[in-house]
Hints:
By secondary structure, this protein is an alpha+beta fold. Helix content is 16%, strand content 40%. The chain has a six-stranded antiparallel beta barrel with strand order 1-2-3-6-5-4. A six-stranded antiparallel barrel has the order 7-8-9-12-11-10. It is elongated.
Amino acid sequence: MRKWTIFWLIAALLCPCAALAAGFTSDAQAINAACQSVVKLDAYDEEDRLIASGSGFAAFDAGCLVTDCRLLAGAARLQATDDTGTVYALKSALCTDEAVGAAILLFDGETALTPLRLSEEKTVYRGSPVAAICSPKGYANNVSTGNVSAVTTDENGLTRIRFNAPVSAGGAGGALMNDEGEVIGMIGDPAPGAQNANTAVSIAHVIGLYEAHKGDEPIPLSAAAAGGAAQTQAREFTLKNSAGFAMSEVYLYPDGAAAWGDARNTSGWVQREASLTVVLSDEELSARTTWTFNFCFYYNGWPCYFEYTGLRLKDILGRTLVVTMTPGKVIEITIE
């Protein structure tokens, strides 16, 4: 009797642990559920000839599709086919960013797609298991698994995830998912001749792109495909001091934040008629908030502080904030 009691006790303890150890990348049901949110994308020219195929995935809401912006080049129309064979048309672009390589497109009408969960964890570790879901060579929603090989950040602050899950041509725009079932990256073009050395741009950049432009007026696909009217996410803005006094302690931080952020003037004073470029971090770009702009200046020998709240990144990124003082001694900010 005692032996049986010990056996069942051990079984009861081991079974829950085994269940907890199974993550998304080894859960076939969870992967197949995620495939319902990933599509094969086909691009057609003005004569309705197929010119390119790729991948995309639903994110943010059922009406948004994330993909590689290069699929838009020369496209007169885009068509998405989901895992059930249902075909959807794309009508416009919310925004594109050639530096990141991403585009956020809008469907023409309602869809049955469920947005994938996007990872808010900024750190991705080498060796972490991943699953790549994409449509290489026109085959819809192929799944491959592997591990993160490396994480790199270039001089422009763009973070890429290298992984060894096989991906072929046509996989660009697909979803790279972690073991929690969250998207950690948008898959880029596969490495030529090396299926096991692929890259994905960090999903933090895509989140930042969406947050900067989610309130914008969408643009036609034709304009986005031409490149001229597509909106590009900048990572910086310029401050121009035309107020007639020198400025110091220039800060940009989330409204209501207890601690000031990193986007500030660290080089001292901004003299009269001088300019300062403020570069935002990935964390700041992806923060879902409005912002406060703050600086210090001396007037008639007294230190004064100016605070401007409610700024939206989409209104200031890539633009110039000009600080002036009117004859009535009122400080004004205009965005050029």
